[in-house]
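Exercise: predict the fold of this chain.
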Amino acid sequence: KEYRDRIEVNTFAYIVRNYTNISSKEYSYIVIDEAHHAVAPMLKRVVQYFTPEFLGRLDAIVPFVPLEQQAMTGIVQKYLNRLQSRAAAVGLQLSFPDEIAEELGKQCRQQGGARQVRRLVQEKVEGPLAVHLLKCTKKPGRLKGKLENGTVVFQ
């Protein structure tokens, strides 16, 4: 099997135990986390065994710092702006009060951060918008989203 464009993550212990079972040309790129391990005799042997196009070292671990509420709200607002642009392209003017972006930003901070924003906007805004549009008997020219008991509704 040929695997192209893949990322493989191995522990130091695994690769030291198993590197001779892997083709020396297996990897195009090798990145060693915590480069201070690179001076270890076994890791030197492993690195010399492989013939990658690129060998990189990460000298530090970058810590995860949760985004502040203002940043999360800004990211949600960016997705809402994109939704407004998509709607405008088909002749629908959407408006959202700031409280929607703020509320969704709070929910994202509680549920795992910015990775959740797109899914949350789809679930909490785009889904209710689609349901509202399907129920309309004629195409609306403008809709306003608002929060009612923590749920986005359109009118």
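Check your answer against the key: The mean pLDDT is 82.
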